[in-house]
Design brief:
Radius of gyration: 16 Å
Helix content: 40-55%
Oligomer: single chain
Distance between the termini: 46 Å
Number of strands: 2
Order of helices and strands: EEH
Largest sheet: 2 strands, antiparallel
């Protein structure tokens, strides 16, 4: 058994009086093996997967931000 979580993250920016601009887009997916096929184990697996995805997304967004500041 496994907990599988996938999500698409979009980050938009908007200056005054301008259209929204897509600054970042990425699909994330994680698969976490479960020791048991129970609801609590599944929720724990999803929580672990979400933590991993959010850590990766934070790093990715920081890199995008650093590149935009450097320009």
């Amino acid at each position: 058994p496994a907990a599988v979580l996938a999500l698409r993250m979009l980050l938009f920016g908007q200056e005054e009086d301008q259209k929204r601009e897509l600054l970042f887009q990425k699909d994330y997916a994680r698969r976490v093996s479960l020791n048991q096929a129970t609801a609590p184990a599944l929720v724990a697996g999803w929580n672990q997967a979400m933590g991993e995805i959010m850590n990766q997304a934070a790093s990715d967004i920081a890199n995008v931000r650093a590149k935009s500041i450097a320009q």
